[in-house]
Amino acid sequence: MTHLHDLGAREAADAVRSGRLSPVELTDHYLDRIERLNPQVGAYVTVTAEVAREQAARAEKAVRDAADPADLPPLHGVPVPVKDLNMVDGVRMTFGSSVFAGFTGFTDDSVARLLREAGSVLLGKTAVPEFGLPCYTESGVAPPARTPWDTARSAGGSSGGAAAAVASGLAPVAQGSDGGGSIRIPSSVCGLFGIKPTRGRISQGPIVPDLFGLSTNGPIARTVEDAALLLDVMAKPMPGDLYAAPPVEGSFLSYAGRPPGRLRIARSRQPAVPGAEVHPDCVAAYEEASALLEELGHEVVELPPVFGPEMVPHFELLWGVMATMTPVPDGGEHLLQPLTRWLRERGNATTGPQLFQAHAALQGAVRAAFPVMDGFDAILHPTLAQPPAPVGYFHDQEPEENFRRQMLFTPFCAAYNISGQPAVNVPLNWNAGGLPIGIMLAGRLGGEGTLISLAAQLEQARPWTGRRPPIWER
């Protein structure tokens, strides 16, 4: 180890519990890096330096006072930022919107509470686009979130700030959320491992309703092991949750050390979005991953057609309705971004019958697809159809063109939000220009363990943590 930020979350937690690492020293290290480097990547919209130092000091005292430090919680003394769509009591929360630039959280939501109970130290809130709606992170309250592999390019979204923080060494891991690819997209463009869990695995409560079941919280990390550890912390259902995930045997972390066995894996690079074309770099990453899976002894076959273009307008309709779910005070609409206003106008124009018909149509499509998809242990796709996009590529367009470009950029992700299946981004490839190109693996409902074991096997075969952007050494 050369730098403290070389440590993963699990390594840092072990070092803190053993007394080899001071949580105060670790926290100060990250706060110093954030102060120096955050302006270059736009990872944090709010930095909670005073809170972090107080929590780190308490964590250090708890280690000294503990009868057995091994009994301390799993992330004791480890810095973990929270996405600015999640509420933390007493901490500024903007939702990525000028409307809420002065808003302060009045409670911990379920995930923030679980992170606190796990002993983590809050470095701050990571940047998001307005209401988490776009697949890039550019807003009216903070500079754009940029991938540290090329700061002229977007870190993706909506968990763009979270991914930029982890990829730049401004946090060991980060909490994200995913309603249409928002963990997998930034993980792909930032060269990270990210997990969108099974629907119902992690509670959305008590602030955000899970009416459609599209969105879920999840981890973003440099390693499979760290992502699994963070998933274990967050994966606790709460009373009132509308959905329940199938139970898992053992911890998710335990799956990172288990061989997956020989799996039957389907693959497809046929996008469901009409007009979407897969860039040669993304095709190459997909083909290399297919070959590696076969080298590792897995059976790889072509996926029969399951999700087609008929699903797209139904998803678009739901997305517009979801844009209306964040309440905007009277007279505040003019402060919204053009894309947000456009989506809310579409959502507000949707009738109740239209909404239920779209939801029913998507459920019907999923019911037809599951008998096919359940015949496989995992399904391989490109995560994205294009390499990381320049900052402004989406945001500088008129809303309709902006949204069209987003759909063409992310034609594989949203299907698994609709179905509720778990899906991960695996950072196996970088193109000739040094940009990360991720591949996506989806699993059966409740199949996060299989995906974690398979991803850990891929990580061992083609390690990626040695690849670091230039900002890492600064």
Verbal overview:
With about 475 residues, the chain is α/β, with parallel strands linked by helices. The chain has helices at about 10-20, 25-40, 50-65, 110-115, 160-165, 185-190, 225-235, 250-255, 280-295, 310-325, 340-350, 350-375, 400-410, 415-420, 450-460; strands at about 45, 80-85, 125, 175-180, 195, 215-220, 265, 300, 380, 425-430, 435-445. Strand 7, helix 9 (about 280-295) and strand 8 (about 300) form a beta-alpha-beta unit. The longest helix has 22 residues, at about 350-375. The protein is globular. The mean pLDDT is about 95.
| Mean pLDDT figure | 97
Low-confidence stretches: none
Give the spatial strand order of the biggest sheet. 4-6-5-10-11-9-7-8
- Helix and strand element order: HHEHEHEHEHEEHHEHEHHHEHHEEH
Estimated structural class: alpha/beta
SS summary, helix count:
15
Tell me the fraction of residues in β-strands, as a range. Answer: 5-15%
Rg for CA atoms: 21 Å
Helix proportion: 25-40%
| Count of individual beta strands | 11
* End-to-end gap: 15 Å
Note the overall shape. Answer: globular
Oligomer: single chain
